[in-house]
UniProtKB/TrEMBL annotation:
InterPro entries: Aldolase_TIM, N/Namide_PRibTrfase, NAPRTase_C, NAPRTase_N, Nic_PRibTrfase-Fam, Nic_PRibTrfase_pncB, Nicotinate_pribotase-like_C. Transiently phosphorylated on a His residue during the reaction cycle. Phosphorylation strongly increases the affinity for substrates and increases the rate of nicotinate D-ribonucleotide production. Dephosphorylation regenerates the low-affinity form of the enzyme, leading to product release. This is Nicotinate phosphoribosyltransferase. One of its GO terms (molecular function) is nicotinate phosphoribosyltransferase activity. Pathway: Cofactor biosynthesis; NAD(+) biosynthesis; nicotinate D-ribonucleotide from nicotinate: step 1/1. Keywords: Glycosyltransferase, Ligase, Phosphoprotein, Pyridine nucleotide biosynthesis, Transferase. It comes from the Bacteria.
Length: 493
């Protein structure tokens, strides 16, 4: 059997990360501790929640993070790096601690969803790959979850591989789609690799190859038990559906006539017509599958038109995240070791744009739910040493409009960030993909519908604890005072 290649992604980093690492190494900062956090600023697709995914890739990546001889040779050939730095890379091993939301969790903007505590150089190296993996998977899992909500409890097949932005996007996108709520995929490799159910019908080429629908459907029916006939190659109403019915009648119990697939034309009209024709022919259980440029909006529209569609095949608009091609998750330094005291000191990025000001310090995110029905109240971001489970109540207030506030007495608080790697060692056991998918669906069901509706959902509260909020304000003031002092000094010189 051919051996499986381990992902060799160590050089999957931006050149500037290596440049910065070399500075840290040359300046004796290779062991200086730092904390970076990933978060995103804007909810994808205007959705009320996002589904966290991509952790499996991060785990594979971190576990295989090593500079091979050929990586080293290549980096030497660039003549940009010092022998001392190259030597550091030769012996590089990730020894950091990663805390993260787990796959299938709901995550929201402006809260840490993945956190790395390690040395400055190791935290720097992994930024690009982690953002790449997590940004894409969250995007597709969230899009899939929207399509799942639109389809309600009807089956949805993932058909996007041919239109995905290259191979990895197809494979990992399919996985994210399954986590987000799709039932199966047409991609056989993804089925094998991840244990996702595979499914499929037939293409127009089969019908064209036989020259007419009757022969093509007969040929297929003679070689398969489960049959879904594609009926729109020539004329859906006058030829496709009548031929499907003819073959189903002829084959009788020899096949399982699952139904037909519509792939063009007015799907509301055609599905109603098809339903009547199938029912009249004695096939009330035959299902109608639709495909062709579908997304959550079209599915809802077709349902509004009372289309008689039982299951959906969705490709391009899911796998390419058609209406929002990138999540925009970022990775920011939030704390760094003070070389004198060896304590972590808070760090933040200040910007004229309030949205871009980061929240400093090592943090935890707590999901606050009502004790009586487990429904969502909001997320409560605290400093790492706070534990709302030890409090009688939580006081939640809007971080900008602080007069918007509430006190919750009877609550559960669950930590969102779990330890995945501890000092370089994997300590988290990934659940199987079916349980991850179930967890995602269960998480969505715990949201109030105001947060989960597809259009213009209410903003889910992501609030800071009083302690964290105060620390942020103090640091902001400290930075402003320092900048002012520097300006004053330079004016006096
Ligand atoms: N009743 C309907 N309401 C809204 N949109 C529909 C309806 N029926 C079909 N559509 C959508 O309209 C779009 C255009 O479909 P149509 O089959 O006319 O064109 P097409 O994609 O160019 O066809 P083909 O695949 O044959 O090239 C598709 O995204 C399809 O899903
Ligand atoms: O539309 P999507 O959501 O991406 O779903 C996948 C599409 O892929 C197949 O079409 P095909 O590649 O044969 O192209 P065509 O139907 O557009 O001609 C299938 O018949 C669907 O229409
Ligand atoms: O199985 C199908 O019907 C299918 C698979 C991929 C793309 N379009 C359709």
């Amino acid at each position: 059997m051919p051996t499986r290649n381990k992902p060799d992604l160590t050089l999957h980093t931006d050149f500037y990360e290596l440049n910065m690492m070399q500075t840290y190494i040359s300046q004796g900062r290779q062991n200086q501790k730092a904390v970076f956090e990933m978060f995103f600023r804007k909810m994808p697709f205007g959705n009320g929640y996002a589904i966290f995914a991509g952790l499996q890739q991060v785990i594979d990546y971190i576990q295989n993070l090593r500079f091979t001889d050929s990586d080293i040779k290549y980096l030497e050939s660039l003549h940009d790096f010092t022998p001392e730095f190259i030597d550091y890379l030769k012996h590089f091993k990730f020894r950091g601690t990663i805390r993260s939301a787990v796959e299938g969790d709901l995550v929201f903007n402006h809260e840490p969803i993945l956190q790395i505590e390690g040395t400055l150089p190791e935290c720097t190296l992994v930024e690009t790959a982690i953002l790449n993996m997590v940004n894409y998977s969250i995007l597709i899992a969230t899009k899939a979850s929207r399509i799942r909500l639109a389809a309600d409890d009807q089956p949805i097949m993932e058909f996007g591989s041919r239109r995905a932005q290259d191979v990895d996007a197809a494979i990992w996108g399919t996985r994210a789609a399954y986590i987000g709520g799709f039932d199966s995929t047409s991609n056989v490799l993804a089925g094998k690799k991840f244990g996702i159910p595979v499914a499929g019908t037939i293409a127009h080429s089969l019908i064209e190859a036989y020259g007419n629908e009757y022969e093509a459907f007969m040929a297929y029916a003679s070689t398969h038990k489960n049959c879904i006939f594609l009926v729109d190659t020539f004329d859906t109403i006058h030829s496709g559906i009548p031929n499907a019915i003819k073959v189903a009648k002829k084959m009788g119990n020899k096949i399982n006539f699952v139904g037909i697939r519509l792939d063009s034309g007015d799907m509301a009209y055609l599905s109603k017509k098809a339903r009547k024709m199938l029912d009249d022919a004695g096939f009330p259980n035959a299902k109608i599958t639709a495909s062709n440029g579908l997304d959550e909006h079209l599915i809802l529209s077709l349902k509004m038109q009372k289309a008689r569609i039982d299951s959906w095949g969705v490709g391009t608009k899911l796998i390419t995240a058609y209406d929002q091609p990138s999540l925009g998750g970022v990775y920011k330094l939030v704390a760094v070791e003070d070389p004198k005291t060896h304590q972590l000191r808070d760090s933040m990025k200040v910007s004229d744009n309030v949205e871009k000001i980061t929240t400093p310090g090592l943090k935890q995110v707590w999901r606050i739910t009502e004790r009586k029905d487990g429904k969502s109240e909001g997320d409560y971001v605290t400093t790492i040493d706070e534990d709302p489970r030890k409090q009688d109540h939580v006081y939640m207030f809007h971080p900008q409009f602080t007069y918007i506030n509430k006190t919750i007495d009877d609550f559960y608080a669950k930590p969102v960030l779990k330890t995945i790697f501890k000092d370089g060692k994997l300590v988290y056991h990934q659940p199987n993909i079916k349980d991850i998918r179930k967890h995602a669906q269960n998480s969505v069901s715990l949201l109030w519908p105001e947060y989960s509706r597809l259009m213009n959902p209410q903003t889910y509260p992501v609030d800071l604890s009083k302690k964290l909020w105060t620390r942020k304000q103090n640091l902001l003031k400290h930075i402003h005072d320092n900048v002012e002092k520097m300006q004053k000094n330079s004016n006096e010189e």
